[in-house]
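Ticket 4471: requesting a sanity check on a complex prediction with flavin mononucleotide. Repro inputs:
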Amino acid sequence: MKVLVTYFSQSGNTEKIAKAICEQAARTNEAELKKLEDITPDDAAGYDFIFIGSPLHSGSMAAPVKEFSGLIQASSGQKIAGFITHFAQGYPEQDMDGFTEPIKAACKEKGIEYQGCFDCQGALTESLHGAVQKKLNLTDEQWADMVKQMTGHPNKKDEEKAKAFAKTILA
Ligand SMILES: Cc1cc2nc3c(=O)[nH]c(=O)nc-3n(C[C@H](O)[C@H](O)[C@H](O)COP(=O)(O)O)c2cc1C
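Returned structure tokens:
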């Protein structure tokens, strides 16, 4: 199978997961890793399976990922899965369902098989800590707890989980 792993990543977290998924995919497939900005939605047509990765931005997939998903040139017979990183420890299934809507809508419109979405924590870039603490209205203590939780993610365990997800859906 020809597999494309494409992603948008500003501080490297989603890229880490993309690399893990591509490494796994390459064990049994012809797999390519490409930054979203290096491809066009038309390029998707050449692959059997496409993984699309995004950081969570204000409770939504990043704008370039949403745009790409809406324009993707893929068709019936192809398969798509998503992956998302976010600083929050975890989100309820219902929220994750909402976050992945842009990909699911594209799949529905084009008859592509949606294969699910992997998600894990990804530490928030330090330059945004002050603004986010303020926005969430957290005390220094609460924020310190949150930072403790997110620091180091995605870690090796997250990468292994991403690989296991890819292995299962590519089987
Ligand atoms: C503008 C912006 C908005 C964000 N909004 C959220 C959010 O709503 N929920 C969340 O859990 N993380 C949010 N984050 C954190 C990122 O999703 C997280 O750190 C992610 O792992 C970054 O991935 P990257 O390194 O691939 O860019 C936001 C980050 C940025 C820069």
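Notes from triage: The first strand starts at residue 2 and ends at 7. Leaving this open until the requester confirms.
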